[in-house]
Each structure stands twice: as structure tokens, then as C-alpha cells.
Amino acid sequence: MSEGVDQVAAAPAAVPAPLRHNRDFTLLWTGQALSALGTQMSAIAYPLLVLLISGSAASAGLVGSATLIGTLLALLPGGVVADQHPRKRIMVVASLTQMAAGASVVPAILTHHVYLGHLIAVGFILGVASAFYAGASRGAVRRIVTPGQLPEAMALTQARDRAATMLGPPAGGALFGIAPFLPFACDAASFGAIGLAAALIRSKVDPQRAAPPPRLPLRKTATTGIRYVLQQPFLRMFALWAAVINAVVAGVRLTVIVLAQRHGATSTEIGALFSISAGCGLAGALLAVRISRLLPGRLLVLTASWLFPACAVGMAFAGSVWLIAFLAGLTGFAIMPVNVILLARSTRIIPDELQAQAGNAMQLCWSALTWLTPAAFGALTDALGPQPAMLAAAGVYAVTAVWLQGNRRLTDIGEGGAAPEPAG
Question: What is the pTM of this model?
């Protein structure tokens, strides 16, 4: 644990101001909320635009893949840069880079010069810049709020992201229907908003150090974050568990759509299914802190872990699309307090000077398999049908739950999600 955190732990406890009165946190959260909404709007608009100009579903997926590849490639070096250079400056530069890249799509649409290569390049740039921003913002949040407020900060972050997931795609689709350039213009403006929010932060968000860190070659420091995560048993457990859960969730999305179609669901009803799931996740995020104070953290984690295979089996044999929506929403609700508990605990464990590197390394672990599973579950669904594919997902979930049930590191999470700080 860093020296700065040890000093805080030894100092007399002071009652911090509520987060709603924390100017810098409110600025950062609001800017990120606008950016998340813009990103979700453009996430539906990019494939719509590619389908409009090419009619190819395969081409439509290339932009999203380029964004993911850019993010994955830049996460580790982005973490190193964010821990060794001014975090505020990195957030501003990354946001302005995203704004410029996203805004370049607007004149291309207006002049009818839209090219797939241009859109792929834009997606890649957005992914790379987001990795640098993510590392810097993780470290900034750790410096802006007190350790005791981390669960509430993480809950607000989860609620923000779920709300954007619920509202962004329909808004982006509606704007695209009015004029194809509108969702891209809004997304570019949202990046400008998040850059302005970062520029207005007054708090010192860089790590507290007795001396400047040595400037080592990037090739020697790029793996520092991932090595730290793998050496810390709790972080290693969290990263592995989240990697499997995220991968399967990403994979079964198409399978759920096919299941709903088998029940005669229209495209509107399928959209409502995912909106219901996102809405339940939003409710879980809003109640996450209260739930985590009422119930032991270990119980919440294990309950959510076993709900995944149970609900997957239920969806495989569900008799209606609305039962599928309810079961998906149930897992979305249950996972939110777990995310808050594990993210808050992880942020407390990671030293201040490694927040960006270790945080980006964990994001790399969480996302490492998500590019593979949609194709894998799509092929499984085509070959065997949606019901066997969902049962296969339930099997993977169950194995993960069994592994987590016997993992001693869950005992590090105390009652109500509060965990003791590691010594030294």
C-alpha cells in the first residue's frame, strides 16, 4: 500500500463531504455520463452507417472490432503513461483526440464521401485514446474521493453506464433516422464535454511521490500492471472471474436474440428485452451501496455467481420472451452490488502510483476474451440451436461459480462489502 494511503489510515478520521457536494467528482462524473451516452449513440450509428453504404453485415462489424483492438493494444502502455505523466493533461488530450476523430465522420456524411477505411481508422483511434483516458481517470477518481466513499463512487459509475446503455442506442437510432450525421455530431460534442470537465478539475490527481519516478523504457514498464495484478491473489481472482463472466455474457447476446425470435418476438420486443435488462441493472446500481451494507459481501458475490447458471437454464427453457427478459434482468440487478464491492476493494488495494497501470491491466483481463465468444456462441447456436448454446453457457457459469465458492480470497470481503486494508 502506498505511503499516502498509510498516512490517511493513520490520521484521525474526518467526515468527508457527500459526493454530491464534491465539485471535482461531480464534474468528472457528469462529463463521463455525457460521453458514455454519446458513445452508446454512435455504437448503434456506426453499423447503421456501414450497412447504408455497403449493405454488408461483416463490414458493419469491422468498426466495432477496430475500436476493441485499439483499446486492447493500448491498455498496458496507456496505464504506464497515465501513472508517470500528468493525469489531467492525459484526460484532456485523449478526449480532444476522440472529439477530432469522431467529428471527422460528420463532413464525410454531409459530403457523401463515406469510406469504410476511414471509419475503421476512426474506430481504432477512439479505442486507443479511450485506453489512455481510462487509465488516467481511474487514478484521478482514487485521488478525488476518500477511500470510504469508493463504494458509492463505483455505484454511481455503474448506474451511469447502465443508464447510457439503456438510453443511448434508441436515441442514436432515432437521430440517425432524422439525419445520419446527428449521432456522430453528438458523440463528438460529448468528447468535448468530457475534455472540458477534466480541464476544470482543481484537485491534484497525480500520485503522491517523494521523488519523480525513474523514466524507464516503455518495453520494460508496460507489463508492470499485469504483473502486479497476477501477484495479488484478490486482484487475480477478480480478473479471472470477470474475464469468464464478461466473455460468456458477450457470447450469448446473439443466442438470446435467436431464443426470443423462436418465441415469435418482433424486433421491437427484442429491443425491449435488452432495455428491461439494462433497466434492472440500473436499479441494481442505484441500490448497490445500500444492499452491500445490509448483506455480507461474500454472500452477494456467491449469490450472483450461482444466479448466472440458474438464469441461463431458465432462459433456455423459458416459455415467453418476457420471462427471458425477467431472468436477464435478475442477473443484471444482482451483479451491480458485486461490481461495486469488487471494484471498490480493488481500488483500495492498488497503490496510488499503480492505479492506471493495474486498473488498465484488469480491464485488459476483463475484455481479453470478448472478441472471441460472439463468433463461438454464434457458431454453436447455428450448429445445435439456441437452447443447447444457452445450456453450454450455463455450464461455464456453473464451473466458475464452483471455483469461486472454494476461493479463500472471498473471505477478504467483510460484512457489507467492507474489507480490511492489507498490511504494509
Answer: 0.71
Q: Three-class SS string for 309-328?
A: HHHHHHHHCCCCHHHHHHHH
Overall average pLDDT of the 129-139 stretch: 85
pLDDT over 90 at 388, yes or no = yes
- The DSSP code sequence of 230-264 is HHSHHHHHHHHHHHHHHHHHHHHHHHHHHHHHHTT
- pLDDT digit string, tens, across residues 266-321: 766 777 787 888 888 888 888 888 888 888 888 888 999 999 999 999 999 998 88
Residue 168: all three cell numbers together: 443511448
* Interacting residues of 118 by C-beta distance below 8 A, sequence separation 6+: 104, 105, 108
What does the pLDDT look like over 406-418, one tens digit per residue?
777 776 564 444 3
Q: Which of 99, 56, 267 is nearest to 190 (CA)?
A: 99
Is there a domain that residue 245 lies in? Answer: yes
The distance of Cα 321 from the centroid of its chain, to the nearest Å, equals 27
| Residue 175 resides in a domain | yes
Whole domain around residue 393: which residue ranges?
Answer: 224-417
Residues 282 and 403 in one domain: yes
Indicate if 163 and 272 belong to the same structural domain: no
Helices (H), 145-223: 150-178, 182-199, 218-221
> How far is residue 249's CA from residue 258's CA, in Å, rounded to a whole number?
15
Q: Quote the pLDDT of residue 215.
A: 62
In a domain, 422, yes or no: no
Domains in the chain, number? 2
∠ Cα 66 159 48 (to 5°) = 35
Same domain (yes/no): 368, 247: yes
